[in-house]
Give the backbone structure.
Amino acid sequence: MITEPPPAPESMRMRRSALDRMAVSGTAVKLPAFTDITVRISDHGGDVTAPALVSAVVDRLLRPAERPAAGAAVVDGLPMADVADGRRLHRVLFSAVWEQFVTRCDELSSSATPIVKESVTRDGVIPPEQYGSRWSFKALHTDRDAMLFSHLYGPVRGFVGGEFLLVDARALMQARELSFDDAFEWSVEPTPGSKPVLRAEYGDAATREFGINLGAPAPGQVFFVNNTYGAGILHGVTPVIADDPGRMVREYHRCSAR
């Protein structure tokens, strides 16, 4: 990690500025814990585009200053026949959520042309020139460019760990009166720009007091995170340790937009 801000795209300057403003104490409304963030597809007839389901997800993602929600959602019970079908349904679900999210989020403009991306990452075999490591980034951080993203995990086998973590940086920085430089350092990337990474000395306490360990992702679970500049939601995973290296597979399907 590096502590000095690297030459960065405008998005990183905006992330730094937004996170720094979160240090202001005594002015924020009470921030919600990561409770009631699960939305069950079975409660909506198994339809991943059901308007009530999509609205329930977006309700949990939005973080307006006066009434912030948790900033994350777990959609449970994707009715997938296999991995390929799950990824197709994930894509459909993300598109429906993004369409509503961009119209309701104060930080975004619904008139702008979005850049929507889809990818599959397989831990342990990532080309090092892409991210500087064969493994996906696991320390608590905000992503560099995406405004909203979601992950669907699978296939997964042959390892322990990989539990999904969320931390509310707003709550952490206000409670501890931390500045950006107090709380964060910059990742070292092989490509231009970096992402803010929570300093290791805060990680355990931050998760315990201002976050949640959601456990290892279950089949059919989709994790959504509001990654807008002002949301202040950090995500990461616990270390992944192969207990059966010959069988180990850890893949996740990611959808994102900015």
Summary: The domain at 10-257 is CATH 3.60.130 (Double-stranded beta-helix).
